[in-house]
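Dear support,

I submitted the protein below through the web form. The confirmation email said the job was done, but the results page showed an empty box. After a refresh the structure appeared. I'm attaching both so you can tell me whether what I see now is the final result or a partial one.
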Amino acid sequence: MGINEILNNILHVEHGFQHIIDGADEIYSANSKEQCFEVALELFRNDAYQARMLATTILGRLAIEDNDALRFLKEQVSTDENWRVQEMLAKAFDEICKNRGYEKCFYLIENWLDDDNPNVVRAVTEGLRIWTSRPFFKENPSLAIALIAKHKAHESEYLRKSVGNALRDISKKHAELIRNEVLQWDLSNPQTLFTYKLAAKLLK
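What the results page shows now:
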């Protein structure tokens, strides 16, 4: 199936992610990495969010080895205003870490978490959920919690929601660690309180 045919099929579907992933698999397997990069850049210029989701997924595959693709994800895809594209960015970031190795990607995780763009940060907090089911962080839950909680009072509600939900996920197996973390928070800060209500939702 050609790229235009794949794209046309994708444009008819408004919800879900699997059709995007399947389309990216087909393009990635049928073209060279150089061709895939050019296709992704062209797709990302498309007005249809589905095309930009597809571009993001292809770039995520390429970025496992290609730092130019990784840079494009961080600098360009993160500026897209469509939330579905940001969901694919989060999935792409996890795909990169999974294939490169989570421990080997620790420097990359820290780098993205320190970015000024909340969408870049959210790609990490959201992409690695459930953090403590991922290799390396499974053995280091306290480290995962510390990394996520740094953004508990971020001005972006979109990011804080991801932070709170990620911590809540971890509380299912590490309730005491999450309890110890949130007990240190200043709940007089309304942004922190917002995150707290999500993070502590399952704590008794």
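Response: this is the final, complete result; the empty box was a page-load delay. The radius of gyration is 18 Å.
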